[in-house]
Specification:
alpha/beta, 248 residues, six-stranded mixed β-sheet, 39% helix, 6 strands, globular
Length: 248
């Protein structure tokens, strides 16, 4: 049996401030660091032992992974980073407060930008300082592949080649794989493994810092899945994610 562990990064500074983050590279809060350490401790207690790890180009995911591995005394594990695991680009919304956006554009419009499957938020200008075109970490990547905004569908589409060619391929020589990334990029993996509809995946909330374990058959189809948290805690954290961007 194969095991795939997904972890959304711990609380970031902009999670705390209720800002649209997307590809903006913000750090973890003290709570986010603690969430990451606790995720590592939980995985260790469960007897999970990943052999290879994947994460995005964004420090909130990288530092979450580093803290998880530190808590597991597995800092030596190989790690592959990819921009394809980055969060969904929120375009020109990045850096804006979600509640203020609701007041300006209406709750229905903001919900469409945040949680519809195929609606993009307003795009960044190519020369905007927030644009990936202006960020040296993306030098050498075809501009046609770098987003100035994305829908969830766009995010999943740019993720899937990496998921198929790198993450799934890792199971050829490993039994347990760890992926630390972001709410929307991880949704792409969840949607694929659980064969969820577009409507189901947009309602599915992934809390920060809670390991999500998938047990896979030898053909890498899903056998069973579970979050490594008690039901009451999990429900509370999922509701907090769902309520972001709603009127206070």
């Amino acid at each position: 049996m194969k095991k795939l562990i997904l972890v959304r990064h711990g609380q970031s500074e902009w999670n705390l401030k209720n800002l649209f983050t997307g590809w903006t590279d913000v750090d973890l809060t003290a709570q986010g660091v603690e969430e990451a350490l606790n995720a590592g401790k939980t995985m260790k207690q469960e007897g999970l032992a990943p052999q290879v790890c994947f994460t995005s180009y964004l420090k909130r995911a990288i530092k979450t992974l580093n803290n998880i591995l530190d808590a597991m005394d597995m800092d030596y594990l190989p790690v592959e980073k990819s921009w394809r695991l980055n969060e969904k680009s929120y375009g020109d919304l990045q850096g804006k407060n979600k509640t203020e956006a609701v007041e300006k554009f209406g709750e229905e419009q903001v919900l469409l930008w945040r949680r519809s499957f195929d609606v993009q938020s307003p795009a960044l200008e190519a020369e905007d300082e927030r644009s990936p075109y202006m960020d040296k970490r993306y030098e050498g990547i075809d501009r046609n592949e770098l987003p100035l905004t994305e829908s969830l569908q766009d995010c999943i589409n740019r993720l899937m080649p990496f998921y198929t060619n790198n993450i799934l391929k890792a199971f050829e020589t490993n039994d347990t794989v760890l992926v630390v990334a972001h709410g929307n990029s991880l949704r792409g993996i969840v949607k694929t493994l659980k064969q969820m509809t577009n409507e189901e995946i947009i309602k599915f909330n992934i809390p920060t810092g809670i390991p999500y374990l998938f047990e896979l058959n030898d053909d890498l189809t899903l056998k069973q899945d579970r979050f490594l948290a008690d039901e009451e805690t999990l429900k509370k954290l999922m509701e907090e994610v769902a309520n972001q961007g709603k009127k206070k």
